[in-house]
């Protein structure tokens, strides 16, 4: 029995790897460069681009060999940009990586997940729950994920579909973006953090391990929410 | 003077929508997802074309002059694949509408989105009547998924 985690070298992805590995579950850990995951017991690193049909085919084979029961789709790229700066190249890149790989990866593992009555869990974003200024293309890609997940779940069948919508999370990706936001607003990163954390009911950003815990929870048997906001109370559904 | 933009699919679909009623204030932006097109490309095609169009609109200042209504038309889904990609596409376009509404706050004329089946275009008339009238504008940013509402 195994679980596939994509974007496994990233903050949320590696937290998902930790969550499953700590429960003794074999993890197939994909990332563009998964070498940082080499040598970990129970973790099989898979380096490669999910836009490459050869990589998808390899994942499909490994899924069969290891009796895959769950997928956590945690890869993606930041996509903040004001509308006037959304070039065609930028739009193409965000949509192709954040959205198009989601159903393509599913096609590669569908047969195995169907046989094992597995789970397909996508890490979307708080930006999938409400539109955000200067985040148009990112929102388009993440809203699409939630729409697809909900429709797949509504159709029924042996596979369960879920989406995790993390709010602001302490990850290098967000911290880097936040430095830019802070500079644009004439603030220090600390001032920006304080302002951004203020409307969050828990008064702080989420931690990657909390997203990993959510992924593990959704992977377990029994009824679970289809869309799970992990936002510290910033978004309430 | 209002305009009709056909960004995707069959031009006649946009023309049919434009002929439903005389418009006072609405610019119509039509994305037609033709039955023979690949559903797996709907999100990408719809989102990339709408972002490109809105980017041009923002440069010309059109958002501040006209109300905008995005209309996505779909063939009645007959396969599971079409059903899930229709849902993903509607959500993706909804995300764009909400984000643009937020980004252009206070500088924006009302912006809305309607999703409708191709064979039910006549059902658009009352929605166009409502959104083309001044009092319909306070729904800015909302998505009218007419097929979802029919089945609800």
Keywords summarizing the entry:
heterodimer; A: about 240 residues; alpha/beta; Rossmann fold; 7 strands; B: about 150 residues; five-stranded parallel beta sheet; 5 helices; 5 strands; globular
Secondary structure class of chain A reads alpha/beta
- Which bin fits the share of residues in helices of chain A? 40-55%
| Helix proportion of chain B | 40-55%
CATH class of chain A: Alpha Beta
In whole angstroms, the N-to-C terminal distance of chain A is: 33 Å
- Poorly predicted ranges of chain B: none
- Estimate the global geometry of chain B from the Cα principal axes: globular
The total count of helices of chain A amounts to 7
Radius of gyration of chain A: 17 Å
- What's the overall geometry of chain A? globular
* CATH architecture heading of chain A: 3-Layer(aba) Sandwich
Task: Describe the protein.
- The complex is a heterodimer of chains A (237) and B (152).
- Chain A is an alpha/beta fold.
- Chain A has one domain: 3-Layer(aba) Sandwich (Rossmann fold), CATH 3.40.50.
- Helices cover 45% and strands 16% of the residues of chain A.
- Chain A is built from seven helices and seven strands; from the N terminus they run E-H-E-E-H-E-H-E-H-E-H-H-H-E.
- Chain A has a seven-stranded parallel β-sheet, with helices on both faces.
- In chain A, helix 3 links the parallel strand 4 and strand 5.
- The longest helix of chain A has 28 residues.
- Chain A is globular and about 55 Å long.
- The model of chain A has no long low-confidence stretch (mean pLDDT 96).
- The mean pLDDT of chain B is 92.
- Chain B is built from five helices and five strands.
- At the A-B interface, helix 3 and helix 4 of A face helix 2 and helix 3 of B.
Q: Topology, pairings included?
A:
The complex is a heterodimer of chains A (237) and B (152).
Chain A lengths: L1 E5 L4 H11 L4 E6 L11 E5 L5 H14 L1 E6 L14 H28 L3 E5 L12 H20 L4 E7 L5 H13 L4 H9 L10 H12 L7 E4 L7
Parallel strand pairs in A: 1-2, 1-4, 2-3, 4-5, 5-6, 6-7
Chain B lengths: L3 E5 L2 H8 L7 E8 L8 H19 L6 E8 L5 H24 L7 E7 L6 H9 L10 E3 H6 L1
Parallel strand pairs in B: 1-2, 2-3, 3-4, 4-5
């Amino acid at each position: 029995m195994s679980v596939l985690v994509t974007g496994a070298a990233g903050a949320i992805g590696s937290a998902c790897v930790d969550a499953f590995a700590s429960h003794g579950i074999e993890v197939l850990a994909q990332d563009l460069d998964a070498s940082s995951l080499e040598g970990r017991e129970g973790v099989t690193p898979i380096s490669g681009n999910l836009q490459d049909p050869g990589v998808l085919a390899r994942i499909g084979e490994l899924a069969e060999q290891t009796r895959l029961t769950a997928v956590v789709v945690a890869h993606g790229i930041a996509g903040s940009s004001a509308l006037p700066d959304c070039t065609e190249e930028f739009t193409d890149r965000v949509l192709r990586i954040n959205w198009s790989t989601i159903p393509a990866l599913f096609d590669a593992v569908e047969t195995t997940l169907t046989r094992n009555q597995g789970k397909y869990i996508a890490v979307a974003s708080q930006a999938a729950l409400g539109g955000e200024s200067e985040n148009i293309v990112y929102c388009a890609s993440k809203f699409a994920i939630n729409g697809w997940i909900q429709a797949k779940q509504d159709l029924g069948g042996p596979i369960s579909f879920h989406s995790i919508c993390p709010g602001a999370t302490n990850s290098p990706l967000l911290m880097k973006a936040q430095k830019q936001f802070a500079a644009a607003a004439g603030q220090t990163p600390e001032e920006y953090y304080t302002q951004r954390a203020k409307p969050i009911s828990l008064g702080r950003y989420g931690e990657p391990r909390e997203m990993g815990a959510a992924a593990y929870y959704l992977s377990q048997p029994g009824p679970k929410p289809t869309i799970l906001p992990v936002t510290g109370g910033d978004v309430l559904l | 003077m209002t305009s009709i933009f056909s960004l995707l699919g069959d031009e006649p679909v946009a023309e049919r929508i434009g002929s439903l009623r005389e418009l006072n204030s609405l610019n119509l932006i039509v994305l037609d997802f033709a039955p023979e097109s690949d559903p797996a490309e709907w999100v990408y095609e719809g989102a990339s074309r709408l972002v490109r169009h809105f980017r041009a609109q923002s440069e010309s200042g059109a958002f501040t002059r006209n109300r905008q209504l995005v209309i996505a038309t779909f063939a009645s889904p007959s396969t599971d694949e079409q059903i899930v990609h229709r849902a993903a596409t509607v959500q993706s376009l909804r995300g764009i509408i909400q984000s643009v509404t937020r980004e252009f706050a206070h500088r924006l004329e009302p912006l809305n989105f309607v999703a409708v089946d191709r064979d039910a275009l006549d059902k658009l008339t009352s929605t166009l009547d409502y959104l083309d009238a001044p009092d319909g504008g306070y729904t800015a940013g909302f998505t009218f998924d007419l097929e979802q509402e029919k089945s609800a």
